[in-house]
Amino acid sequence: MEKVLYHYTDLQSATLIRNTGLIKQSVINATFGTGVYLTEIQPTASFNEILFNNYDDDVSRRQWKQLIEQRGMKCEVCIVLKISRRLFQEKVVQCETGRNVFLYRGDLILAQMNEVVFRVR
């Protein structure tokens, strides 16, 4: 059985990901450590729901707006990833937070996924 997770990003980064076949791990502002940040929140969710999930826990509305200004509104593109059970067990951990956040340890190679779909929101 495979696991479906989502990676949200901006259009420029999505183009780079598609061209290289690689989602590079986050190392800056990586609250739960280096890796590729994923979620179970589907692309039918609102921009606000996705952005709130993407940013740090327990921030005020003012801080949240500042985070979006600093880091960008990175949810224009949703990358749908179907991950094999084996790879999920080896590489993915659920982060201990009140948010829906998973961490793929290391760079994520698209060719290793069962299926990859890019969706512009």
From TrEMBL:
<protein>
    <recommendedName>
        <fullName>Tox-ART-HYD1 domain-containing protein</fullName>
    </recommendedName>
</protein>
